[in-house]
Amino acid sequence: MSSDLSEIEKHDDSHPELNAHTDALLPDPGLHEHHWRPTDVDPKAEKRAERQVALYFGLSAISSVLFVVAYFLVEPGYDGDVWAGYGASNLTLGLTLGFALLFLGIGVIQWARKLVVDVEHTEERHPAASSPATREAAVAELKAALNESGLARRPFLRNAMLGSAALLGLPAIVMLKDLGQTNAQITKEQPYPGAGLEHTVWDAGVRVVRDVVGTPIRPGDLEVGDLVNAEPATIFDGSLHGAPLQIAKSKAATILLRMDPNDIENDVTRNWSVNGIVAYSKICTHVGCPISLNERTTHHLLCPCHQSTFDLADHGKVIFGPAGRHLPQLPLGVDSDGFLVALSDYPEPVGVSYWERNTYDIDEIFDEWSKDHAADAEQYGYKEGGQ
């Protein structure tokens, strides 16, 4: 053990003690010898590198053009073209756009590595605030860097890069087509029932059924305080399929609440109710969340996302939270078999606000509805003052 300690002491004594105040801790290593790149000393290598960079920019431009070609020629969708078990549209669009970006990036990197002037600089650290002279020197260096980059001396590469980058805008422009028709066009053409933001599949005489199971509802099935998630019977009759079915179901989502008729505070709410049963859109008017948190004693409906609260006894008005509009109410009636039905579609668009949407007072909405639907609604027991 003593021999080991003596060896350690000998080892420690072999290093001179350093004084941090007087001795340099490390000598200045300086810069390594600068090695010139082949393109700096060989004109042929420089030309070869220039052709390689131009090739990458050209491949990027070709990939952008192929993206546009594939967008129009390869059939997308469920019944579209399939290659090797994959959707051909997604495959070709992804590959061509990816290669366009990849080749452009490789070209820029290769230009910087092989053709931009290769000079090493060192400078001492300086205060954060620069003097006017330093700022002027920085501007001069930026100008020199622009010259050294070769943008001015290599117009062919510069134009190839700018051309390939410009062609990358084509995919972005072409994909604007996927935005589809405007709301006004869809509403006018009605490619399927309830198309557009202004309408749903609710209509006069359409039965109110329970969500998921699709069973119709009689007023006597509900007790005071019951809240039921409902949909129009149209969702379950097989007339809609695929995307139109899902769109129709999401927009037509409705909640039924039965309260004591004497608790209803608004005349319009009373006119569109049946024995204290009211129906409102399930879609919050703030950002479109589905709502169904019911305060049974107050008839308040709470959105769990941002706490917007609506009074179902008073035309669904907002009493708290960020929502800017009341919940649309669905006018209710009863058909000849005693089942709850809608007297019309929602008198106003459901869900969140959009560009073309106007917000009206509930009395204005009721007046417009009465002109168009009140007479026909009488066959379902409608009368002012409620059923």
Radius of gyration: 37 Å
Adjacency order of strands in the biggest sheet? 3-4-5-6
**Low-pLDDT sequence parts:** 1-11
Q: Tell me what portion of residues adopts beta-strand conformation.
A: 5-15%
Q: How does the helix and strand content classify structurally?
A: alpha+beta
* Element pattern in H and E: HHHEEHHHHHEEHEHEEEEEEEH
- Mean pLDDT across residues: 86
State the CATH superfamily name of the largest domain: Rieske [2Fe-2S] iron-sulphur domain
CATH class of the largest domain: Mainly Beta
Helical proportion, percent range: 25-40%
Main beta sheet, described? 4 strands, antiparallel
Structural domain count: 2
Count of helical regions: 11
End-to-end distance, in Å? Answer: 105 Å
- What is the count of β-strands? 12
Shape: elongated
* CATH architecture descriptor text of the largest domain: 3-layer Sandwich
**CATH-defined fold name of the largest domain:** Rieske Iron-sulfur Protein
Explain what you see.
- The strands form four sheets. A four-stranded antiparallel beta sheet has the order 3-4-5-6. Strands 7-8-9-10 form a four-stranded antiparallel beta sheet, with no helix packed on it. Strands 1-2 form a two-stranded antiparallel ribbon.
- The protein has helices spanning 2-13, 38-41, 43-73, 88-114, 132-148, 155-167, 169-175, 183-189, 242-252, 267-271, 362-377; strands at 82-83, 86-87, 208-210, 227-232, 254-258, 277-281, 293-295, 300-302, 309-311, 317-320, 332-334, 340-342.
- The protein starts with a helix and ends in a 10-residue tail after the last helix.
- The chain has two domains: 35-119 and 134-179; 193-380, Rieske Iron-sulfur Protein (3-layer Sandwich).
- It contains eleven helices and twelve strands.
- By secondary structure, the chain is of the alpha+beta class.
- Helix 3 packs antiparallel against helix 4 (88-114).
- Helices cover 39% and strands 11% of the residues.
- Keywords: 2Fe-2S, Cell membrane, Disulfide bond, Electron transport, Iron, Iron-sulfur, Membrane, Metal-binding, Oxidoreductase, Respiratory chain, Transmembrane, Transmembrane helix, Transport.
- It is a multi-pass membrane protein.
- This is Cytochrome bc1 complex Rieske iron-sulfur subunit.
- Its main location: membrane.
- Residues 7-20 have a biased composition (Basic and acidic residues).
